From TrEMBL:
Its main location: cytoplasm. The lineage of its organism: Bacteria, Pseudomonadati, Pseudomonadota, Betaproteobacteria, Burkholderiales. It is found in: Cytoplasm. It comes from the Bacteria. The keyword DNA damage does not apply. InterPro entries: Mal_deCO2ase/Cit_lyase_ACP (IPR023439), Malonate_deCO2ase_dsu (IPR009662). Keywords: Cytoplasm, Phosphoprotein. This is Malonate decarboxylase acyl carrier protein. One of its GO terms (cellular component) is cytoplasm. Pfam families: ACP. Covalently binds the prosthetic group of malonate decarboxylase. The modification O-(phosphoribosyl dephospho-coenzyme A)serine is found at S25.
Amino acid sequence: MEKRDYTFPAGQPAAGRALAGVVGSGDLEVLLQPGDDGVTRIVVNTSVDGKGAVWDALLARVFTGELLPAASIVINDCGATPGVVRMRIEQAYEDIQAEGQP
């Protein structure tokens, strides 16, 4: 089991909470809640040791560039591929955007 922590610049706090995915064989869950203004903090709990460089590159790609809403994110991973990780993060952000629309 490996735990990794990340901090990225962000915009205004996220508008709500979201859960995307399910921890299980080859998948993961992303738990997102509003964060502090200007900062997204991410904790990754993964059952796959030794993939730190992959996590570093993937999360830098997702959170560098356009500022996403500030959030506190917990990712519980059970061996998901980078594509699934990115998809689940995007789903969580889409869910909070949908909540804020009338």
